[in-house]
Amino acid sequence: MPHAHRFLPLILLAIAVAIADARAAEPIATDRPDFVESSQTVGAHRVQVETSVAWEQDGDARTFATPTLLRLGVSDHWELRLEGDGWLRSTTDGERESGLADVSVGAKYHVAGSGERGPSLAWLVHADLPSGDRAFRGHGVRPSVRFVAEWELANDYSLGVMPGLVRESDDEGRRYTAGILGVVVGKAWTDRFRTFAEVALPQIARANDGGTIATLDLGGAWLLNDDVQLDLAYSAGLNRRTPDHAVTVGVSARF
Description:
Helix content is 7%, strand content 57%. The chain has a twelve-stranded antiparallel β-barrel. The protein has a single domain (30-254), classed as monomeric porin ompg (Porin). The protein is mainly beta. The two termini are 41 Å apart.
């Protein structure tokens, strides 16, 4: 085949297109809008932005926020993360406070599994930094660790569980350790539309440490294409220490 080399560029182009199509065939996997994080990382050399607007009501107190998560793929198993509640506006008894929230830095490590044969597993390590405006700034660095396990079930259902621990500080700067737990059940109705229901406990603590915060969350997500997702979720507080209601609307994009 003396002239086979003439077709080499076409062969390489065909292989490149096939690889690109295979890569694009995996739809975006997001950590929102549910509380339980995805066990999947964004992949090597990928960037993913997950942002939203959120409204929360607790009695007469109302809060508006713009939660945002930036995910940077270091390898197929590692990603770096930067997140926070963005710009906040809180109104209580007619008094209004506005400003930037604290920022959290962290990493996710996808241990193994795809969820189809056994669970898909991941570790997340974060540190909340006292970087926000005075009205919304926390006390000191607050580290946390979470473990995620996800299972693909029959009839396009899925199950996710996320236990964890966080080292927190109260308004006086006193340190304490609290638990974290989330359990979510999802249902994929089509290749583009899924819904979920979950119980989320972002803080499990003694009454002296602020008590336990618990919500019932319902929502759904729509894939516009393999790299863009829209989502909507509603949360209802399950005890008196938890805000009464919260709504979030978000968009996520992968590059």
